[in-house]
Design brief:
178 residues; single chain; mainly alpha; rod-shaped
């Protein structure tokens, strides 16, 4: 009874968006514990079943994750998830803010999954690896050579001025800059 009161108190503090989600897709951990009741009245497990009734299929085995795409078993066609990635991210952020993220079904937007992928793949930004370079714009790719050419010209400038003066300010000058 105290567990139910705790869940009721928790539900009162949740925003309506999370309440609607949990009403439509109850948490799997809570729904399986609530739906499975132990028959301790008799030693025969089928004591309360009549001959013509079929036991219900366990709901946890047919539970479909609303964050994953599903395949129709008859046609074989894949159906999109009920919640898009953007809406999944919004729900996960809300659940993390209210401390109920473990009640949500598996999602690629969950914090655990994001950190696992970050550890597995790293940053994956092109040009940050060993021996890699970012492509960049044309001027960014050529600026190193241009600056080196300019530095070399500045080092040769005193000699160029001297030659200019010797030749008579441009007569017979062949080294005009490009």
């Amino acid at each position: 009874m105290s567990v139910q009161l705790k869940h009721v108190e928790l539900a009162k503090t949740l925003p309506p968006r999370l309440l609607r989600f949990f009403a439509r897709f109850p948490p799997q951990a809570l729904s399986t514990s609530a739906s499975t009741t132990l028959n301790t009245s008799s030693s025969d497990p089928n004591a309360n079943l009549s001959e013509d009734t079929v036991p219900a299929v366990d709901s946890s085995s047919t539970y479909e994750n609303p964050f994953r795409n599903t395949k129709n078993p008859i046609t074989g066609k894949w159906h999109d998830p009920i919640y898009s990635l953007r809406r999944q991210a919004d729900l996960v952020k809300l659940a993390e803010a209210h401390g109920v993220q473990e009640l949500l079904p598996f999602s690629t937007k969950a914090l655990e999954e994001r950190t696992r992928k970050r550890e597995e793949f790293g940053l994956r930004v092109k040009g940050t690896g060993v021996g890699q370079r970012v492509k960049g714009k044309w001027w960014e790719r050529n600026i190193r050579g241009r600056l080196e050419k300019r530095r070399q010209a500045m080092l040769e400038m005193p000699q160029m001025i001297q030659t200019w003066k010797q030749l008579g300010h441009g007569r017979g000058w062949k080294k005009f800059p490009k």
